[in-house]
């Protein structure tokens, strides 16, 4: 017997879902969705699960992650409901359910938790720099002396290990929730992992199947690859990225950092502008965590640029302060967003496509066996 949660729809409303009474299950949203296909219909099916309080059905569904929020379903709804926004609310809900720590649930449901956790992580980072920094040289900019590389590297590795463990654990929980079949061969798992997760993670190409979504895809890619570039520089090439050497403008590290920063500013700026103007269905409603992510991302980029500007202007104290503040913003952006909020969606989407494929292969195998 299916488990019924009568408070399910109320939980979804807290996360941004529309007034469910506006929907009378006509199915126009599913018929107009360019990504819905036989066996994986949405959003109507997902809305029905919520109306009936079928929590287990909702948690075991991968369809919410197959939606890329193009908004065609909302535009075509004869009742003026917002199924696209509803699917976004469901993705937030699923993120809270995959998270075994329970923090994601608190983060999404409370602005106080958002604010306090950010301030706390910022303060811990700044205080950490204060207590471990080296000599403050004022005759020239000397970042290596102010905050030695080995200290920053230890912090990078610690955060990378913890965040990877949290996110991979949540992805595994997603697998346990969504994949019913366990009789697929190991080779099949590996083959489909390479065929689905890798290309969809790197390209997010499924988004292009939505009409009028090319510009949104470009801006999304700018943010993803802009941050990925900075992340690689900081983790892999830290000795070249955090250095006292004044690189010429054409140096690959400096030029790459500028291009990545510009990509982030353009992508995040486009998202902020759209949310302020509410110029598309996907930007009609913004959850507080959406603004949190974009604001923090912008602060990280701007303070990072200031560090570089002050360094090249030969302003030591300004460089050290900007660098400390920059690290203070980087920590909550990574610690809060990667395993618990917006950045985690970058992992859940391609893995949802992967798990959907595994389920489809299992069903095909059963049909062949029973035929």
From TrEMBL:
Keywords noted in UniProt: 4Fe-4S, Iron, Iron-sulfur, Membrane, Metal-binding, Oxidoreductase, Transmembrane, Transmembrane helix
Lineage top rank: taxon: Archaea
Transmembrane segments: 112-131, 151-172, 217-241, 253-273, 293-314, 320-340
Record-linked PROSITE patterns: 4FE4S_FER_1 (PS00198), 4FE4S_FER_2 (PS51379)
GO CC aspect terms: plasma membrane
MF (Gene Ontology): 4 iron, 4 sulfur cluster binding; metal ion binding; oxidoreductase activity
Domain (4Fe-4S ferredoxin-type): residue spans on this chain: 14-45, 58-81
InterPro entries xref list: 4Fe4S_Fe-S-bd, 4Fe4S_Fe_S_CS, HdrC_iron-sulfur_subunit, Helical_ferredxn, NarG-like_sf
Keyword Oxidoreductase: yes
Record's signal peptide: none
Family affiliation: Belongs to the HdrC family.
Official protein name in the record: 4Fe-4S ferredoxin, iron-sulfur binding domain protein
